Request: fold
Amino acid sequence: MFNRDLLERTASTFAQAAIGAVGTNSVMDLGVEQWKMVLAAGVSAALAVVKGAIATKRGTRGTASLVD
Reply:
């Protein structure tokens, strides 16, 4: 249960961050290369994994959520 939950949260965080960053860069012409935006989304996904690991120690339901 926990692994599927964490995988879903990590994948959705990456997708949302990548789409948001690349979309914003395209529309606003921020001058940042696309691969750097995707890399930043990867960092967001990595932080989601860290948060999920912390939740296993702090949470009470056996999920990647800190909220009971």
Remarks:
- Residues 2-58 form one domain.
- The two ends are 16 Å apart (CA to CA).
- Helices lie at 2-28, 34-58.
- The chain has a mean pLDDT of 85.
